[in-house]
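Risk register update: the risk of archive-format incompatibility is retired. Evidence:
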Amino acid sequence: MFGLGFQELLLILAIALIVVGPGKLPDLARALGRGLAEFRKATNEIKQTFDQDETVQEIKKEFRTAQSQMTLEQLAAPREPQKVAAPAAESAAAPAEEPKAETGKTASDIESASERTTPSTGS
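Archived output:
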């Protein structure tokens, strides 16, 4: 353990028995055991915190790498030339005709009919 053999431990226990006394030695051993247990628990929590911190750092590194890779791909991708504004104005001025269902009615006709038949929940 700490380079102590059985004889050294026996000598330490004998000295502790003489100094502390037989009545208080069990209480002292119990308190020492609790202290060691708390110390181990605290060190384990610190180890877990460091492990979690390392995991978070790895995730951040992967995210930054992916983000820079996406940026490079966007810069390398050829851009399409933008369309002239005139065709866009024509399409806005003349909206496309709504597709008709098999009944011959447009979607707006069906919506307005359903609004008329739905009872209002007013006052």
